[in-house]
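Category: protein sequence paired with discrete backbone structure
Discipline: computational structural biology
Format: plain text, a pair of labelled lines
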Amino acid sequence: MTIAADIAASSDGGYPLQLIHTTTVDVFRTICTTGQLVPQMCDVMEAKLTYFFYGRPAYRPGPVQVNNRNRDKRPVVMLFSKEKIPKCAQIYPCDTGAHRRGMYEPHLADVPFADLDCASVAQAERRIVARYFGSNPEYFYGEPLQKLSPEPASAVARAFHALLRSEREGECDDRLLSIEMIGADAFALHEAASHLVFPDFLQADKDVAAVLEGWSKQGVELVPYRPQGLTSAGRTVEQLFPRVGELQGL
């Protein structure tokens, strides 16, 4: 029995959260040039894909503990409505890259991606939240339910729930608690994005600022932030969590 089977009977939870794609300023400049979010080669799935996390800016573009002054490595967080992007063909209850690297062992040892993929279930991401976290706020802030009712009939689901509740200091970050959604098609950013959270210095970049202004006129809400001068992209993403939560009504 798979995770998909375990969530199938769950409610679809509360209101839908946005899909989040996080990148760095240098990559964002390319997106500004093309106007599109384009799938990139993924070593885990061995295909060109675009990755999102449901509701949470969980991706860390670089190690949290490595500081630098490189402005091009500051994060840009993009929020998208699921209905406005091409269909996500794969939906997983946690980060697939960490699973491939064995970071979720022993709980998910030898569990194939097929047993974790929930894309066959309607509103799978909302059902995962309801089943394992209970509500959007508990999911967003990484607080899984301690007890499930009914208890999972599936050994895979029981193992996944035990993993969510485990203490794994130093082994992985909160991508363990984040629903991963994967697409394979390019799309125009201004047609799908609801918000762009970006470092404020980009407003003084003539080329980027012109693109941002155009997207703003097309309905994308611009949310500049002031980054620390000496920090890491990963730490900055963590600092942006409350702001991204506010943008989603959390």
In short: The chain has a mean pLDDT of 93. The first strand starts at residue 19 and ends at 24.
